[in-house]
Amino acid sequence: MLHFYLNSQRIRTDQPAGSTLLDFVRYQQHLTGTKIGCREGDCGACTVLVGELQPDGATIRYQSMTSCLTPLGNAQGKHIVTVEGINAAAGTLTPVQQAIVQEGGSQCGFCTVGFVMSLTGHALSHKPATPESGLAAIDGNICRCTGYKSLERATALLTEQLAARPAENVVHWLSEQQFVPAYFQGIPAQLQALQAELQSNETKNQKPIANHQILGGGTDLLVQRPEHVRAVPVELVYDQAHLRGIRQAADGRVVLGAAATAENLRDSPLMNQLFPRLPAHLKLVSSTPIRNMGTVAGNFVNASPIGDLTIFFLALDARITLETAARQRRDLPLRELYRGYKTLTKEADEQLVEISFAAPQPTDFFSFEKVSKRTHLDIASVNSAAWLRAENGFIQEARLSAGGVGPIPLLLARTSAFLTGKEVSAATLAAANEVMQAEISPISDARGTADYKRLLLRQLLFAHFLQFFPERLSLRELV
């Protein structure tokens, strides 16, 4: 039995935990404001807000999520908000809705609900409201009619209004300004009571799940096998606290819980300290709602040859920890997880529980690059990451990875070995590219021809080094 709050109502349901939140709100609760669009997390028409009680027990963090890919089980103990739950009174518009109307941001109206919910999430955010954060809030929403400029104007108008938002008692202020109804103020206490109840029931009824499917954020499995996930018992790992942490161990290695999301990485002070360009890197991974949902381990075990986070961590020589139901563990390098297209060395009863990597030194170089048809939103045509350690213009160590150029995510071992000990120069990169081209085996598909992908990877190699050594290299001499 699942328990959560949907708008202002307490929900108890025995619907399958692997079914989608979208189908539940539309077909079980008849809240049809949440639209069915792509069912792949691309269009944003089904966007809802998911509020999670924070450790202080007094505040809730709301995040936008695409309900078409949100497992219903991940609503457990949370506050789910649809468009029907944000108006203070019937017939009145919230400031978000009013701004979109005022700036002509709605034509056919199909996408409008998604934009309204994303911008309401922007208003509820714990982060400062800036022009950049306002536009980032709607980066997962597609509009086929307005050309976006009207929606950008509406977002700018809201950001100006939110400049008066206080640092404390945010929900109270938002309620007064009618961004959200007054019932939002009572949700923290209601979730606190609900979670105490759920913990008590869990202690009494804890039973192992037989023949289950492990399910994290759902952003891969609910695209690829939605009927299977709905039909089988699932073990939900998204909310397991011990699988979501990000910490630095005593030996200096950085340890990530497998259920940490891409947005958890982007928000982590430790990760931002180690990777100063991390926000820009992870902005390439996907839209805000998908980063709020998709887990690191899910990206790894999906085994896509173009998994963005997989490519990122291959260049860091990350290791993974696998655990059986009997709590037996084994570690292996991430690069050894893949033995063929969509084929893993992981056994059926093993779960990926932890990822670790050596913390980069402040003088190390790291870069992640990606080319896709839609910037920030789409699956990569080719992606690549590079880690280097260099001194006085000579490369001491190197690790390059690439996706979209072979049947598995590739650590370019031969190219990395070739670069080690070489002087940074255009000639070195030209020679490294020759080695790299012999190391990859791209195919022609919907994302480009094999020749195009070879060209893209060459350009990404150059992009890494131009960022690392702008004083030694120029684009003109490389191309």
If you had to describe this structure to a student in words, what would you say it looks like?
With 479 residues, this protein is α+β, with helices and mostly antiparallel strands. It has two domains: 2-193, Beta-grasp domain (Ubiquitin-like (UB roll)), CATH 3.10.20.30; 241-478, Uridine Diphospho-n-acetylenolpyruvylglucosamine Reductase, domain 3, CATH 3.30.465. It is 35% helix and 20% strand. The protein is built from 19 helices and 18 strands. The chain has helices at residues 21-28, 95-102, 112-124, 131-137, 149-161, 170-176, 187-205, 221-224, 226-231, 262-267, 269-274, 278-283, 288-293, 296-301, 308-314, 413-419, 426-439, 450-468, 475-478; strands at 2-6, 9-13, 47-53, 60-66, 79-81, 213-215, 234-236, 246-248, 253-257, 319-324, 329-333, 338-340, 343-344, 350-358, 365-372, 380-391, 394-403, 410-411. The strands form five sheets. A five-stranded mixed beta sheet has the order 2-1-5-3-4. Helix 17 runs antiparallel to helix 18. The longest helix is centred in the middle third of the chain and has 19 residues, at 187-205. The mean pLDDT is 93. Residues 176-362 form the FAD-binding PCMH-type domain.
